[in-house]
Amino acid sequence: MSENCIFCKIIAGEIPSKKVYEDDVCVAFNDISPQAPTHILVIPREHFASLDEAETKHKETLGHLLLSAAEIARQSGFAKNGYRVVINTNDDGGQTVFHLHVHLLGGRQFIFPPG
């Protein structure tokens, strides 16, 4: 846990969130500033700042985050229509909280390319 990380504080229960899923590897909750009708953040319990800082030892955690996002989409009823999974990395990538996290977006059609 990083003592100044807002996501670490959410995991520790120091900051409230509307959790939609949790297990021993990750926690998922609704984004407080949604960019789609459904916008859920899936975060690992282990703190590492970004995908750029991920190491081989994080391989299982990264896979788990993606599989959890898919399961949340199925359980929430928007998987069939489709969804987008995004990992913003560092400043130019749009990352604003430096605890790796997956954005799970659904409930509307998305265009490509983004940005």
CATH topology-level name: HIT family, subunit A
Rg computed from alpha carbons, rounded to a whole number of angstroms = 14 Å
Q: Detail the poorly predicted runs.
A: none
Give the name of the CATH superfamily.
Answer: HIT-like
The H-and-E topology, N to C, reads as HEEEHEE
- Secondary-structure arrangement, i.e. CATH architecture: 2-Layer Sandwich
Distance between the termini: 32 Å
Can you describe this structure?
With 115 residues, this protein is α+β, with helices and mostly antiparallel strands. It has a single domain, classed as HIT family, subunit A. Helix content is 21%, strand content 22%. It is built from 2 helices and 5 strands; from the N terminus they run H-E-E-E-H-E-E. It has helices at 6-11, 59-76; strands spanning 19-22, 26-30, 38-44, 83-86, 102-106. A 5-stranded antiparallel β-sheet has the order 1-2-3-5-4, with helices on one face. The chain starts with 5 loop residues before the first helix and ends in a 9-residue tail after the last strand.
